[in-house]
Amino acid sequence: MTTTPQAPLLSAQGLHVAFPARHGGAPARAVDGVDLDIRPGEVVALVGESGCGKTTLARSLLGLVAPTEGRVTFDGEPLRYSSRALKAYRRRVQLVLQDPSGSLNPRHTVYDAVAEGLRIHRGAGDERAAVAQALSRAGLRPPERFFLRYPHELSGGQRQRVVIAGALVLEPELLVADEPVASLDASVRGEILALLLRLRTELGLAALVVTHDLGLAWNIADRVAVMYLGRIVETGDAEKVLTAPQHPYTQALLSVLPEAPGDPVVLSGEPPDPSRIPTGCRFRARCQILASGEAERAGVAHRCRTEDLEVLGGGGEAQVACHWARALDPAL
């Protein structure tokens, strides 16, 4: 008996976000055609170098940046951009930022920081009990011990837990975590990642984790989407993508991890300017496969230089936007 795939909780369809250039130049295509689904209870890692568009994509999924083309749907309904609609949406989808020091007002106690969302959304019920429950779920126990403390009295890991508690207090269905452990000591990172996984197990929370760290993606994600120059270039089950990457960009990112076999692949130059996306494959100017002649031997070098690749589908199947990888494996 076949099971019907679960309908996505959050979905981006044909999403584009462009920012106008100064002095009348070409607009910067920060997100240049993205389909992405996140199912209930699923953790998706969005990975890539700085400047690849992943934070802009996350902000667009949150309704903080309106797309110039395409749409975002949540629970089957298109996202609307009126103040009232966005306020209702943000009860259900919460953002966790990478820098807890910047996320917390130094003049507010932990209690006030966590209660802020309830007050904005006029949450009904017992505020004190809701704050205590959120702090406890975030691993700050007994919660009452933290009520009257200020951010400067906490460790970095405790501050990040307060930020997570501030998101949890509204009982959302999805967290968008932007580099959630980037500013933390290595000794604390594992604790926060374990917390996020426990929240998924206990509360059924879905999460989009934005990161440049493939090691983090390996530890936390069910599925990985690799982004380069405004598009997802490889996606699929986390274990499959991270143990057998098909796209040369993914291979290069993984090659620099300490446990990776072989020599690291050093990519030349920086990602191209998003206002001047090259013809053909957008990775071709830095591609080690094209530079080494392997693409020529596979008979796809001309296509790499001239033929754009279509937007990958947003579902969970393994996909790659690479002429060379598809020549080696036509099933991709």
Walk me through what this model shows.
This protein has 332 residues and is of the alpha/beta class. Helix 4 runs parallel beside helix 6, helix 5 crosses helix 6 and helix 6 (156-168) packs parallel to helix 7. A hairpin with a 2-residue loop joins strand 9 (223-228) and strand 10. The strands form two sheets. It has a seven-stranded mixed β-sheet with strand order 6-7-8-3-9-10-11, with helices on both faces. The chain has a four-stranded antiparallel β-sheet with strand order 2-1-4-5, with helices on one face. The radius of gyration is 21 Å and the shape is globular. It has helices at residues 54-61, 83-92, 100-103, 110-120, 127-137, 156-168, 186-203, 214-220, 238-243, 248-255, 288-292, 294-297, 301-306, 323-328; strands spanning 10-19, 28-38, 43-47, 69-74, 77-78, 93-96, 174-178, 206-211, 223-228, 231-237, 319-320. GO terms for molecular function: ATP binding.
Topology:
Elements (H helix, E strand, L loop, with lengths): L9 E10 L8 E11 L4 E5 L6 H8 L7 E6 L2 E2 L4 H10 E4 L3 H4 L6 H11 L6 H11 L18 H13 L5 E5 L7 H18 L2 E6 L2 H7 L2 E6 L2 E7 H6 L4 H8 L32 H5 L1 H4 L3 H6 L12 E2 L2 H6 L4
Parallel strand pairs: 3-8, 3-9, 6-7, 7-8
Antiparallel strand pairs: 1-2, 1-4, 4-5, 9-10, 10-11
